[in-house]
Amino acid sequence: MAKLQVNIVTGERVIYEESDVDVVVAPGADGELAILPSHAPLITLLAGGELRVTKGGQETSLAVFGGFLEVAENRVIVLADSAERADEIDVSRAESARTRAEESLAERGRGGVDLAEAELSMRRAAVRLRVGRRRGSRRGPPVGTGMDNQQ
Description:
alpha+beta, 24% helix, 8 strands, 2 helices
């Protein structure tokens, strides 16, 4: 049976690279989509959310924020604006970011608050918390430290 080759990259590093993948579930701009072997060619925008890769019954979870997903000939390429593996997410840091964003939104009437930036920060923190808590994340090294995080 056919399997998928999956590459997930950001401008800074390769986040995930694996062959023989069974399914990829990604947060598309118009909703969640599942990619199975022999999927029709596709290019779509990614929204912020959880991207899941299943290989041999093992699921790897990542928080992705924006970018593109391309499917062609059993190959899935994700070019993400930013992405983190679940085990890299620092849940306490994400909780602090959410708290700061909530405070900024509460002070929006006082001026000096960029509403769009505060809302984006809130959404990013919520995704990190959802992925991190569901997947039992630990405190990990900061993204982009050059540490090899491939499986």
